[in-house]
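Posting here for the record, re: S-adenosylmethionine.
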Amino acid sequence: MRSYLHIFILVVATFQFTQSHVHAIPQTMEEEYDAATTGMLETLYGEGFLSHGGPETVSRMFKGISLHNKKMLDIGCGFGGPSIYLAKKHSVDITGIDPVKHILDKATKIADKQQLKTKVTFILTPQLPYPFADETFDIAFSKEALLHSREKQAVIKEIFRVLKPGGQVVILDWVFSPATNQSTRDLFNVPTFNPIEQQEYVEYFKDAGFNDISTAEQNNLACKYTIESIKHLKKNKESIVQKFGVHEYEEALLGWNTQYVLFKQKQVLVTLFKARKPETSTGIVQPVRVFKWYNPFTWFGK
Ligand SMILES: C[S@@+](CC[C@H](N)C(=O)[O-])C[C@H]1O[C@@H](n2cnc3c(N)ncnc32)[C@H](O)[C@@H]1O
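Prediction output follows.
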């Protein structure tokens, strides 16, 4: 892999552990998301999902947004779990794009198996511009994928282009804050990752022409899902070791533990961004709304 390998490296740097297990740093997305990594992610997150929270998180991303009969774009669709879930639950037409071929092939296979060919289409899209006409989609979304992009500003402009007037963008991503320390920034200073500051994202939305921009930090939920993954790893140690080997298992365990620390200490902010393309261009940008996420699991207990 190796998302969790990078996390592993941080643990080494932070806690001065031995460096004897460090692998080569992935240079490409194909290396980052090799079979072992995607296999481990799917084992932890469920069929079709390469990111945390499964259908629950996907539903939360669109809370308050009507999806009925909408034409949607999923950027960095992975194995297609989020798109397939939305297509089964709502009357939507979804196109998923991703730069990695073996990932797209698997997404297509899962959608075919579930007879969703007419509602979900996956298109290999290794680079900008996206292969769609202006004003094609009602909603564009991305779940934990754009942290890999080195062209986020261009991506956001491209999203603006392919959205219909009044269309919405919904992005869940990992970002930094001014409080993020240097060792966390160093951890992500590798070819396949490029998290930016939360505020930088907001500026990109504004520059592209979006309005009605909001941010909502969801670290409490990210911690909850990370703990679930750690529990799953521990409970299913035997079968996971059998499938992936003991080394991969140990790296995963260490990686998810470190991920938990990064989320808990808010070194990395798991942030839901929403914005709208104006119906008509007024040139007036409204103030950014910041939502605080109250985790119901802790909130009601207080
Ligand atoms: C953590 S997975 C998330 C996949 C999916 N969104 C999900 O939630 O299951 C990240 C995905 O982003 C894709 N990706 C990598 N670089 C990208 C880029 N520049 N733009 C869009 N997607 C990218 C990867 O190939 C991978 O499928």
